[in-house]
Amino acid sequence: MEGYVANLNRDDEKRHAKRSMSSWKLSKALSLEMIQLKEKVAKFSSSSPFQNLEIIATLGVGGFGRVELVKVKNENVAFAMKCIKKRHIVDTKQQEHVYAEKRILEELCSPFVVK
């Protein structure tokens, strides 16, 4: 019985090690992809950065705007971009909520948020 339990423990450790390694590889691949995306976005013209993007689809719609799936033109890079109606934010006096969300996203450490 002790040998059986020892084998189970060893198998669990192997599975956990494989899972950790695959998640590390995925994390490394995502961070490399995010670095490349940040570099591409940094090259956009500051006067009209959106001319470099092509809208593929609308992912969601909310009270203040929508989230679009966008693609960098002439590249195979896509990401979600939140589009907010500034006039509606000002009219409904929701500026603090938008700034709070921005601060939270800036503090967030996630491979899914481009800073």
UniProtKB/TrEMBL annotation:
Give the species this sequence originates from. Answer: Eschrichtius robustus
GO molecular function terms listed in the Swiss-Prot or TrEMBL record = ATP binding; protein serine/threonine kinase activity
Chain spans, region Disordered: 1-22
User: Which is a Pfam family this sequence falls into?
Assistant: Pkinase
Q: Where is the Protein kinase domain?
A: 53-115
- Recorded protein name is Protein kinase domain-containing protein
Task: Name residues in a coiled coil.
Answer: none
Give residues annotated as binding ATP. 86
